[in-house]
Design goal:
- By secondary structure, this protein is of the alpha+beta class.
- It folds into three domains: 1-115 and 239-291, no CATH class; 141-238, no CATH class; 294-385, no CATH class.
- Helices cover 50% and strands 15% of the residues.
- The protein contains 16 helices and nine strands.
- The strands form four sheets. The chain has a three-stranded antiparallel beta sheet with strand order 3-6-7. The protein has a two-stranded antiparallel ribbon with strand order 1-2.
- α6 (128-137) packs parallel to α9 (222-235).
Length: 386
């Protein structure tokens, strides 16, 4: 009799799991009351959330309220598949990061054209504060910090043997009017000091090459997102260990990189394990492209080719939605060099952008050098004829 009861309970649990999976795969955008439906779906997943919060029902209810408040401010998420939203919530709960005004984690709509059928999915993106928390929870960190440097601040840094970093902000600075110079982040551990400094050119290119450059995260926490870009680079330098805290940091970092590179995260509740948490498909990590400028440079080259063929298109910077002074692809530099009418203007451009030019590869630098020499000859010839 006991064996029959066990089989009955197992069959009932399996059926409940199948019903829940079917519900999670519904299209919220086609429902009359998507918020109410999503709330009911959260309640159906309560057992999983209770497991993550050590059976603390108050913590689970808070998770529901905070998440629904976050979604109400970005209702495009209601067009996403319910299972991706529940998956984001499960991962956030596992990592101990909250969606919302604290800036610990964000959900961003992502169109997954690899899904069958293609659909919008919510993707999990850890915020700067969230990554900082996860690093601190590893127990290796002595201190960590990041900030944006404005004109008027005292700032100095140096890489190498005598590496160091010094930032003294100007207290009476009006940041709504001041110009941003760069962003930085550092982590001081028991074994060393790690930091990176990123020019606003590089930081803005990273923003514009992301899949959601004008998302609520970038609009509401712009400086924090710049700093997070730095912090993400620093986190790659930190020693790796196999503790639970390090595993959580690894999961958050992978999800951040994957979302940035427009790769489906696969955060399906079906992949949630009560012992291991949300299972991450490690193969997606190897799809990540470490060059954030690759997509933009390719677009810039295409636009430059159209312009050279006489097509009526905007300048590279304007076409890509950039402030032209912030766009620093090889194609943009070539465009500026070819537009130079005097040696003074050409030298000024090369001097002001010397640091950024050094970031390009040998092939691009060689092309820029050829164009520069040709423009110098053109300017000199014009002066002789004049």
């Amino acid at each position: 009799m006991k064996q029959n009861n066990n089989l009955h309970d197992a069959a009932k649990a399996s059926m409940s799991k199948q019903v829940l999976a079917r519900d999670q795969d519904k299209d919220l955008s086609k429902l009359q009351k998507p918020k109410e439906y999503l709330t009911s779906l959260m309640e159906k997943s309560e057992r999983q959330f209770l497991r993550l919060f050590s059976n603390d029902k108050n913590a689970v209810q808070r998770l529901y309220r905070v998440t629904m408040n976050y979604i109400s401010k970005n209702e495009k998420l209601l067009d996403c598949s319910p299972n991706s939203i529940i998956g984001c919530m499960l991962l956030g709960a596992e990592l101990g990061l909250e969606f919302g005004f604290l800036g610990q984690a964000h959900m961003v709509p992502f169109f997954n054209n690899k899904a069958k059928p293609p659909r919008l999915e919510a993707q999990f993106i850890p915020g700067y504060q969230g990554l900082m928390l996860l690093v601190q929870r590893t127990g290796d960190v002595v201190s960590t910090y990041g900030d944006v440097v404005y004109e008027g601040d005292e700032f100095d840094y140096q890489y190498g043997i005598d590496a160091g970093l010094k930032h003294k902000p100007k207290l009476d600075l009006d940041k709504t009017k001041a110009k941003k110079k760069c962003a930085y982040a550092y982590v001081k551990t028991k074994s060393g000091f790690y930091f990176t400094v990123m020019s606003m050119l590089e930081a803005e290119r990273i923003r514009r090459s992301s899949k959601a450059p004008d998302s609520p995260a970038w609009k509401d926490w712009t400086d924090e997102m710049y700093v997070k870009s730095c912090f993400r680079k620093v986190s790659k330098l930190l020693p790796k260990e196999s503790s639970i805290a390090h595993l959580k940091l690894w999961k958050a970092s992978v999800m951040d990189e994957v979302a940035f590179n427009e790769i489906p995260q696969g955060l399906d509740p079906e992949r949630f394990d009560e012992l291991e948490g949300m299972k991450i498909d490690e193969t997606i990590y190897y799809e990540v492209d470490d060059d954030p400028d690759k997509k933009l440079v390719e677009q810039a080259k295409q636009i430059t080719e159209k312009k050279s063929n006489g097509d009526n298109v905007k300048s590279v910077g304007e076409h890509l939605g950039f402030d032209p002074t912030l766009f620093a692809s090889p194609a943009w530099h070539i465009e500026q060099i070819e537009a130079a009418q005097t040696m003074a203007y050409l030298n000024k451009h090369l001097k002001e952008h010397h640091q950024d030019l050094q970031m390009f590869g040998e092939k691009d630098l060689g092309l820029i050098d050829v164009v520069t020499k040709a423009q110098i000859m053109k300017i000199n010839k014009g002066n002789q004829n004049g």
